[in-house]
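Tokens as discussed.
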């Protein structure tokens, strides 16, 4: 009979404090405490993020154990996000993971956050149907825009990534220019309803190979709004739906065109999409079109495992636990931890 392995996973790379417990590939609990304090600043403030992690980590861990109905002494290992991410935030998760591992006398396992986004596709649930290898994974969130070529759980390589802003930041910064709140993606999506996505044409950033760049697009939108507002100070208000639909279209088109190129170049039949931006309905419908056009299959992990979460960290820990890939207690976070 298969042995039950219980892993406690900790995620604290950005502004979500998350702790999860897994039993082999199943998730028993996945608690995410999203920090609201950043909303009024229109983006994540690193110092405030690490302070909030300090405040949240113990109650979030207690709740994760309670919901999973697991005692600390049943745990087999502690997995934590080593990076990439914000140093102060990572330090909180790393120190807490070390102290748990020491006090419970169980192995410590470091996890790469970007690999974990890919591994989230292998969380076992009711309609478990993970992508088969090889596949590409596009991770699109506030922190990342990256295409990973996945040949196996261990064999992953980055084939394209943003040179500056992420796709989520493009949504967030555009929303800020339009005077909407934070996070901007869901607000732009909501306001795009009833808008004409072809009313205002923005140009796709011209970047070689499979990389992305979104900072020029932000400048393009800023200059356009400045010009139009100079002529009519009610321009944004009068055109908010068209503006949101047009901005959403250019960000999504940029993502989908690059992904299409990557699929053709790598000759794969499966793509997985992760990150907060993956919840955008227009993006999903464009991926569906790509599916039909290229005769491929797309996979979207459940949204709670697609945005930052500790279940993906715990599951990644499970794979490493089986191979006895443990970390030394001297380990420290690595903000630029490479896949
Ligand atoms: O994965 P996530 O929750 O957190 C990290 O950044 O890691 O992603 C958050 C990002 C934000 O930039 C937010 O604006 C964007 O995902 N986002 C969306 C939507 N929901 C969240 N962007 C476009 N459309 C959405 N519906
Ligand atoms: Zn992430």
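Sequence:
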């Amino acid at each position: 009979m298969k042995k039950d392995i219980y892993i406690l996973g900790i995620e604290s790379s950005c502004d979500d404090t998350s702790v999860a417990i897994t039993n082999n590939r199943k998730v028993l609990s996945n608690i995410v405490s999203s920090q609201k304090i950043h909303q009024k600043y229109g983006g994540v403030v690193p110092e405030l993020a690490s302070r909030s992690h300090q405040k949240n980590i113990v109650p979030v861990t207690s709740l994760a154990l309670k919901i999973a109905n697991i005692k600390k002494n049943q745990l087999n290992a502690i997995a934590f996000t080593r990076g990439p991410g914000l140093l102060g935030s990572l330090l909180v998760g790393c120190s807490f993971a070390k102290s748990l591992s020491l006090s419970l006398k169980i192995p410590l396992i470091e996890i790469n956050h970007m690999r974990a986004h890919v591994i989230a596709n292998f969380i076992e649930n009711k309609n478990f149907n993970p992508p088969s290898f090889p596949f590409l994974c596009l991770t699109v969130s506030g922190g990342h825009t990256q295409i990973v070529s996945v040949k196996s759980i261990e064999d992953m390589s980055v084939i394209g990534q943003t040179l500056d802003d992420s796709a989520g930041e493009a949504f967030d910064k555009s929303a800020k220019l339009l005077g909407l709140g934070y996070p901007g993606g869901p607000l732009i999506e909501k306001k795009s309803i009833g808008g004409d996505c072809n009313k205002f044409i923005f140009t796709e950033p011209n970047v070689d190979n499979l990389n992305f760049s979104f900072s020029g697009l932000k400048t393009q939108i800023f200059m356009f709004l400045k010009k139009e507002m100079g002529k009519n100070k009610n321009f944004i208000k009068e055109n908010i739906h068209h503006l949101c639909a047009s901005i959403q279209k250019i960000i999504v088109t940029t993502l989908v065109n690059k992904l299409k190129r990557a699929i053709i170049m790598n000759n794969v039949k499966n793509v997985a999409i992760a990150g907060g931006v993956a919840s955008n309905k227009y993006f999903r419908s464009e991926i569906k079109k790509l599916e039909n056009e290229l005769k491929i299959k797309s996979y979207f992990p459940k949204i709670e495992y697609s945005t930052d979460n500790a279940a993906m960290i715990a599951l990644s820990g499970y794979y490493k636990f089986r191979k006895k890939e443990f970390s030394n207690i001297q380990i420290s976070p690595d903000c630029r931890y490479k896949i």
